[in-house]
Amino acid sequence: MIKIKTKEEIKKMRKAGKLAGELLIYLEPFVKEGVSTQYLNDLAEEFTKEHGAISAPLNYNGFPKSMCTSINNVVCHGIPSEKEILKDGDIINLDVTVILDGYHGDTSKTFLVGNVDEEVVNLVKRTENAMYKGIEAIKPGKYLYEVGKTIEKYINKFGYSIVRDYTGHGIGAKFHEEPAVFHNYTAKNRIRLKEGMIFTVEPMINMGKSHRTITSKEDGWTVTTADNSISAQFEHTVLVTSKGVEILTKVD
């Protein structure tokens, strides 16, 4: 069942989305060489509490931290740690989700740390472009598969691969709702878009030719590329409107 949000729910989702976007902006100056991912986690938790919200990832299905920190070949669900120190040339995705007044705002961004190789910088830029192209394909009456189809058409020309094991998702009072949002074309997303639907678009793009991933047996969370290639991700929470789409987590 895909939940169509009411006007009141949409108001709450706008507020939650805005706060999540502001959290990423707040964290950006601290993403630099020599900083631990645990420090970034603590800053995120403090900011969230100060704004009357809750960090959704903390204790979600047993996840131990307040956000995900995914470095270089980590695709998603990286766990912050005092031992994990950012180095010159790294890229890191910060994935944050807040719960404000019972509703979720979910967004992520891949940051560059110091002097990053040009080919990796290109991967990051193109991943962000892919997300926005996917979002632009959202219109009421169209099918959800247009998101993945558009992203795939753009990404394929660079020889990258699109992760298929993890998708975007519906979101609202629950962290994860229907539908699953694939970032490649699939008939599974033959779902007619309707005004009031809210979901995330969050492509994970690997520099290597393999879309396959491996989940750590050690912590049960950290997902890496199967071929050890670099991976980037961007994410926004979006609302289907009567005319097109509204990005709820984008802050000017």
From TrEMBL:
Keywords, comma-separated and alphabetical: Aminopeptidase, Hydrolase, Metal-binding, Protease
A Pfam family reported for this protein in Swiss-Prot or TrEMBL: Peptidase_M24
Top EC class of this enzyme: hydrolase
NCBIfam families in the record: met_pdase_I
Assigned EC number: 3.4.11.18
Function per UniProt: Removes the N-terminal methionine from nascent proteins. The N-terminal methionine is often cleaved when the second residue in the primary sequence is small and uncharged (Met-Ala-, Cys, Gly, Pro, Ser, Thr, or Val). Requires deformylation of the N(alpha)-formylated initiator methionine before it can be hydrolyzed.
Catalytic activity: Release of N-terminal amino acids, preferentially methionine, from peptides and arylamides
Name of the coding gene: map_2
Top-level taxonomic group: Bacteria
MF annotations from Gene Ontology: initiator methionyl aminopeptidase activity; metal ion binding; metalloaminopeptidase activity
Transmembrane segments: none
Name of the featured protein: Methionine aminopeptidase
Record family assignment: Belongs to the peptidase M24A family. Methionine aminopeptidase type 1 subfamily.
